[in-house]
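A brief tutorial aside. Many learners find it easier to grasp structure tokens once they have seen a single protein encoded end to end. The record that follows does exactly this for Amino acid transporter transmembrane domain-containing protein. Read the sequence first, then the structure, and try to relate runs of similar tokens to stretches of the chain.
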Amino acid sequence: MPGSTKSGVEMGDKPSKPGESLPAQEDAVFGVITEDGPNYRNVGTLGAMALMIKTQFGLGVLSIPQVFDSLGIIPGFVCVIAIATVTTWSNYVIGTFKLKHPEVYSIDDAGDLMFGRVGREILGFMVCVYWIFCCGSGLLSTSIGLNAVSAHGTCTAVFVAVSAVAAYSVGSIRTLGKMKWTAWAGVASVFVAVLTTTIAVGLQGRPPAASGIENWQSDYKLVGKPSFTKAMTAVASTIFAYAGTPGFFTIAAEMRDPTTYTRSLLACQGTITAIYLSIGTVIYYYCGSYVSSPALGSAGTLIKKVSYGIALPGLIVSTVIVLHFSSKYLFVRILRGSEHLTANTFKHWATWLGCTFFITISSYLIASGIPIFGDLVSLIGALLGTFMSFQPMGCMWLYDNWKSGREQPNVKWMLLSGWNVLIIVGGTFIMVSGTYASVVNIIASSKATSGSSAWSCADNSNS
């Protein structure tokens, strides 16, 4: 029964040995898990870390140098560290909330506990739309990579469609436990690609885009002077780089031992923050205002082809994982409480493949309708990423701690209460102002370049 099962210690902490039957497990979300169906509780500590890193490290890192160009190196540093701090706290709250409420699978379940049916439906709708937009940005970045590698070998719309087919094929794997190998491969792929670009811009001394300028020196800024619109767009892009937060619910729910969740989280956040700061600083320092978005195009045509060729598996994996998250959310929502959720029945397979197909088609429409990488990333970060990563987690902490803390208030409780209220208020401000800025930029970008129009066949890898 929901809420009656402990957080996972007795629910399959240890995987069965090869050739050994999987014992029946009772899970507060998935119900009875047997060897006759998929094992939804088979993600270990290292696997969780890989999934967490890949959920965030992929599309986001490609926009960080552009953030530094807008804000300057010092404010850019502050922005990245601030967002990293808030999202690390938010992700930590997810782990503690899951241990206290084992029946929680996704953010909509948390919304139901806090705000009832209205909270469930609002947060459920928002998280589904959020993952669709993330998947759309993944398809778009993959099409950019295919264009770069093939020197625009065919219509961009075709590349987006090819990316969608590839994502659907791999994203239809049913459990995260079987997808963790793709996460490791994806992390390695993107890391090597951005490292290649970083080394190349350092060795070149100047970006190829500035080759016609005599006695060129990098025009990097320690402190930028962006307009309000540009500044909020940069903040929103940084949020997107860390906004895998809703996926952490799913990862925690499929861990064999959720008590090790925090260990995986801290390793993930520390790793990607170090990468974001180092990669963003070096690429921007050498390229200045000539930095590209996505950043893999900053070292010229040859390195761009090499880097995208290396990064393509990682870009596809980023798309696959968010496609899986959104499909799994719908799948669990539809079949929860029925035997078909964990049994290999026709209804099980039809529902699962139908969910993945629906998300794929929806994401394809988004990628084709807003084909401007930087603007799409900032829009997702501001409108959906902020709302999915800030406000609900502040409310979750207050839900679990407000009543007991008021009875015996102490300094720690007062500080944490103020911190979570600040997250809620600050997140709301960023969401509203960042969305406005992103919409303004999308309109301006669409008018400025004919090649960035919706459903265009034009090469989108020359940003």
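Self-check: The first strand starts at residue 25 and ends at 27. If you spotted this yourself, you are ready for the next section.
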